[in-house]
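Dear Dr. V.,

Thank you for agreeing to look over these. As mentioned in my earlier message, I'm a first-year student in the group and I'm still getting used to reading structure tokens, so any feedback on how I've presented them would be very welcome. I ran two proteins. I've put each sequence directly above its structure. The first is here:
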Amino acid sequence: MFEVGFSELLLCFLVALVVLGPDKLPRVASAVGRWTGAARGYLRRLHAELERETQVGEVQKQLQDAQRALREQAGSVDAAVRKAADDLKR
């Protein structure tokens, strides 16, 4: 995605220190840390859900392929049974 280097973090910290002051900065840093943790947790759950959906889609495709093959085999078996029945009638 994007990278934040040490110099950018230091600049953000200095701006926050000047704007907020030394008394409010720890509380704001704590709140930002909690928000960041919550966002990471949300993204982790979202990633896991998307992975599950992808796996479900793959399993459904495999099931449809198996059903198609089974129908084809059933059709060929049915044709063979009919042919055998016709041969017996003659």
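The second protein is here, in the same arrangement:
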Amino acid sequence: SQRENTMSTYVLGACPIWGHVSPVIAVGQHLRAAGHSVTMLTGSRFREQVEAAGLTHVALPADADFDDRQPDSYMPDRERYRGIARVRYEIETVFVRRTAGQYRGMRALIDQLHPDAVLVDSVYSGALPLLLGPAESRPPIVALGIAPLGQRSVDTAPYGFALPPARSAAVNRLRNRALRALVEKVLFRPTQVLANKILAELGLPASPRFVMDMSAMFDRFFQLSIPAFEYPRSDLAPNTSFVGPLLPKLPQGSALPEWWGDLAAGRPVIHVTQGTLDNQDFGRLIRPAIDGLADLDALVVVSTGGRPVVELGDLPANVRAAEFLPYADLLPRVSAMVTNGGYGGVQLALASGIPLVVAGSTEDKPEVAARVAYTGTGVNLRTGTPSPAAVRGAVEKVLGDPSFAARARELAAQFARHDAFAAVEQELAALGQPKGAAPLVTA
């Protein structure tokens, strides 16, 4: 039946980690505001945030639920591992071993609500059993690419190496094939074996793809970025569309710090941030940046991501700080941003035409930093703990070479052509149409 102007029912799922939950909530809030019924399955700790967005919250089953603020509670043995073994332990513990619980929670909601579509974050492993089961027993299942695209390609190194494409196409493909064999057949072979064992226990076939790269299997995969901020792929999966980032609706004119007038002094403004997640230790990036930029002829503006400003210690004369800064007012005045490389924050800077200095070593941050360098929009310091001198040199480089700002402005023009919220809403509506109805086309 045609359901064009009637309300649709959507079920959302997210791994119980704030960086995975928040983009899914943002899309859910948009869908709810458009009049749809939205239920979200995620960690019990996020109930308040989910309900504040107007969505119905359902907690994941106990074996898939954990509190991401307490790593010792859900990754108890991680300190026993180093290097690749540590990465493997974390992937298996946080994602792969949660597959059955995530799946059971999602299957129950599908059977209860008969949703028009299911939307999950890109590593919600509980979607895998649904995708491998009979298509007629499930609604369309789509995913949000909340981190740099990790999709397998002859043109890219495996995700996690933070390696941009090599200059020579032939060398690039040879290198990528060798690294992919190393990752899939050696380093993470046990991870694939574990995933397939869990699938077999659910009565399902083995996964046809590497378990940490499900993106090509979804009915639609919405990469939250633009092609210009991603490596070129000649073999991009046909289900994948770049919809642009979920740029936050920036509140105008929230309370301004008393030093706000100093921004008008005409000096370049350098914004320094460690985001709101990896900001427990200011000694990683914020303090080295403050010390390195202390006598630069610029105004250095620091945001602590909610922590008390006094914890920064003594501030040089050219530094101003606040717990939060009104980005809608600040970003148009910023000449360069020093950041630890969160995907959302970096794209927000680029959407404002701001060149970057990136120092990130956790989660997906090295992959983000590598893309900044590859696109010519900034400098990758290749560490999460740079020295004051390294930050200083990189900022002087970005300010002194106009090509960085020019490239950032080129990307900003492309970001401006995308509206991720509208694109996802449109695509979901098209998926819910009866077979044979004309699909909606989005740029």
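From my reading of the second output: The longest helix spans residues 169-187. Residues 209 and 319 are 50 Å apart (CA to CA). Does that match how you would interpret it?

Kind regards,
E.
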